[in-house]
Hints:
Its EC number is 1.2.1.12. This protein is an alpha/beta fold.
Amino acid sequence: MSADKHLQSWQERFEMAEAMQPLLGKLYRNQGVEVVVYGKPLLNASTIEIIKSHRLVRRHVGEKLRLRESFPFVEALSKLAVKQCKVDIGKLAVNYWREYADASQIEAYMSRELADAISHEDTEEARDVVLYGFGRIGRLLARLLIERTGVSNKLRLRAIVLRGGRKGDLEKRASLLRRDSVHGPFNGSVEVDEENNAIIANGTYIQVIYANSPDEVDYTKFGISNALVVDNTGIWKDEDGLGLHLKSPGASKVLLTAPAKGAIKNVVYGVNESDILDEDKIVSAASCTTNAITPILKAVNDKYVIVNGHVETIHSYTNDQNLIDNYHKADRRGRSAPLNMVITETGAAKAVSKALPVLEGKLTGNAIRVPTPNVSMAIISLNLEGETNKHEMNEYLKDMALQSDLQNQIDYTDSTEIVSSDLVGSRYAGVLDSQATIAEGNRTILYVWYDNEFGYSCQVVGVMQKMLNLNYQSLPVA
């Protein structure tokens, strides 16, 4: 193809992506329909990001997906009375063009494939959400909730609760939401309402409340009722501590963004969210590492049956460590985080059994904290009942990433050049690095990347939706 043809082709794709953007926005804002291409979200995506998402399809299925082939599906989707679901137009388009020679049957095909969502009655009311704490996870949860803002959005961020309240605190909190050294600038506008002690982000009015204890707040004074309180402080981890939230007027349920103690259910979204019952007032979303490894462990166990194994996590440092050598109550964590690899303990491997009881007593685990600010890796070494090899294991897990109930948790890469910084912003619980897979006979070693901040936060949002009975289908099913 000539240079002029290349440029013309690029301009055509660019124009098609531009035409797609307003349709994608309206689908989400007005109908609650999130459009993805093989799991890659297009909500608020730039034209370049839309083009890139289509280029990645070849890596997944070995076939090109051109924008001119997917655009009719977005158009058809915008004409259907579909509500409150995630629709993968990549899968729909690829499957359609394998079967049909022209576009004449697209609307009928879409009506069949999305029948469940078309007949779905949108009866759920929007629910109030309060973020108790506004650290790394709290601010990312805020970003995720704000990006979903629309008339059809059922999760409404209403307030954040903080300790302190010193002069200038509100502006500093807004600045931390506006700018992030790892995840980049906030996608939109952040304003401060000093008079009413609030932050307004992309039109979302967020009341800032100061309190020193979970039971000190009367949310009803701010028009907040029946709220889900998401405790991301990590201070309270048992029923007695987290139960304090329920003493606050206006709070109805509590979600902990850390492993819980005692009888509180630890939930990994995509694996055991069905364990959540209406009467459960307090639930834990487990840890980032438990979320990263449990979906892949479930997939492997379902086919090969895990005898036993060990999980070693190479984990980015966190604010629980020291910048320079100083006292810390835990062994080794007092040593400088940016200057050392630090061996430490992790309960993530044992915690897997709380979400996947079949693995009770089968896994051990350890962790090494390393001098990177975000993105971690789990090295999973397993002994299996069934035999396998590298190609078979990779193909199976690739299929799990593309065509299974775990497709929103497991991602797959076959790149020979991928490194940790490439995974910043990944929305998956874990990403299998297939090039590194080792498998022979009854033994396998899997290398799983995960954005321990953003990927985990996406999992937390899933648990939030389940706790509030906000049904959100992923279509097509396979």
